[in-house]
Amino acid sequence: MMLSVRFAVLLLITVGAAASASDRATMLVVEGEGANYWPGWRGPSHQGYVKGSGYPDKWSETDNVQWRVSVPGAGNSSPIVWSNRLFLTTSKAGGSEVSLLSYRLEDGEMLWETVIPQQGVEHVHPKNGHASATPVTDGERVYASFGTHGLVAFDFDGKIVWHARLPKLDNYHGSAGSPVLYQNTVIIYQDHQQQSFVAAFDRVTGERVWRTERDARTGWGTPVIIRAGERDELIVSSQHKITGYDPKTGKELWGVTGNKFEVIPTPVVGHDLVFASSGRAGPTIAIRPGGNGDVTETHVAWQSPKGAPFVPSGILVDSQLYTLNDMQAIVTSFDATSGKILFQGRLGTAPKEGFSASPVTVDGKIFFTNDDGETFVLAAGPEFELLHVNRLGAKTLASPALVNGRWYFRTASELICIGG
Questions:
Q1: Which domain, by its residues, includes 338?
Q2: At 213, which CATH number?
Q3: How many domains does the chain fold into?
Q4: Distance (Å, rounded) from C-alpha 382 to C-alpha 59?
Q5: What is the average per-residue pLDDT within 127-145?
Q6: Which residue among 224, 371, 401, 409 is least packed, with the fewest CB closer than 10 Å?
């Protein structure tokens, strides 16, 4: 009888350990050559981490500026970098023309501009604009979402390789979510007033691989792809709900309710948790992935009651999750595993919706850039320590790209390269 009890206890421990291992979550990051560059939204880590050193942490309109060039048109998409090329989307004439631009990295010389065929002019919020989605590249092609005008693949010489048309999108602020790469597909989701969806397209041909309808009607976020135990999961954080999908088939795996109405921030991943921030000062929710069905009652590790970002994504540094309430310019640091608030601090004045760029971290510092081009440099750690503030003197809504000791900022009218 004693042997039976011991066996039962051992079995429970073994099963518990296996269940715990199956729920472990890590971000699927860019590997190989692409890990050296900034190939898509939030870089190769997909969450604003910068490897290496030698990046200046101080600059101004003139100090540490390596070059600056004018950018035709307007847009809030971030620059991406592969090898000696920088790519950027833009729009002209009130959205009647949208295009992809390519620049030479060392001096900012524009190499080409390719305008895409489009259908009408999408209605957008003035702050959003017609070129808000950041492109992504695999080193062979550049994939860019132009909202209602479709998903387009370009080669590095600017030739359109394929153009996947989409039904007309009807989102009252326009489109914004960026595409992500997974195996041989390009994945994007579009939540709007007609028929929302998440879909995957073949990287080589542009043919649709799968499409899954969604219930949400409002959202402008970018998905992330994680490894949860033995399976991969595509995470979409949007209106009222965070959802996990199978990125190979589009099948919905699990869902957690609790988000607010308008959601933009991209989830971040670490400590075996997915952290999703809800729009307009709603909650931040820490989720254990790997579940099935509605897991709101079983897989939420912790959540904050309110104060989450409306636009900027969070960032995870060591054991701390940092989020920025852009309604009040207040940064909050949480203990990532427990949700305990470690500190809060104000970054400058408190204009409503005054931050749009998502933060980055390098060399033990965290950089938050507001819409006026002011970058607040915080020391990563358990206490609020504002080291200094850098000022570009230009409206800056796009997140920066960082490669080989240089920063690449897109302002309202320029590309600026910052280097030591």
A1: 26-419
A2: 2.130.10.10
A3: 1
A4: 26
A5: 92
A6: 371
